[in-house]
Amino acid sequence: MGSDDPNVKELAVDECWALLRTHDVGRLAVCVDDHPEIFPLNYAVDHGTIVFRSAPGTKVSAALSDALVALEVDGYLSDSHEAWSVVIKGRAEGIREIGDLVDTVDLPLFPWQPETKNLFIRLVPTSVTGRRFPVADPDTWRTPLSNVRRSPLE
């Protein structure tokens, strides 16, 4: 990931997991027909992995293929005016063993849609990276109207 900006702090893996535990929604990136697709999902942290539940479909088929997947979760710390981003890359596996399924039933996984979502998927990380950085004051990006060039059509 790396950044040349001295204000960007690379996070240790344990910091990444701690931040992931404070949220429950992320974006899953998968490869579908040789192009990337991104799906929002609810997740739970479970013993150094990420678990989500879903219904059969494109997201699940792509996640369970041989291709690597990625999950990104972001947040904002209002007290320090800092943002953070954590990215997990790895392989997704269907949870099928009865003992593993019983363990996942108690995870706080609450999908937004009411349809049946009986498939439990575990993302086993090969890489966990994160960074934290200060959020710029919005005035930094404001341009006085007198400096804005007007279109000849106005």
UniProtKB/TrEMBL annotation:
<dbReference type="Pfam" id="PF12900">
    <property type="entry name" value="Pyridox_ox_2"/>
</dbReference>
<dbReference type="InterPro" id="IPR012349">
    <property type="entry name" value="Split_barrel_FMN-bd"/>
</dbReference>
<dbReference type="InterPro" id="IPR024747">
    <property type="entry name" value="Pyridox_Oxase-rel"/>
</dbReference>
<protein>
    <submittedName>
        <fullName>Nitroimidazol reductase NimA-like FMN-containing flavoprotein (Pyridoxamine 5'-phosphate oxidase superfamily)</fullName>
    </submittedName>
</protein>
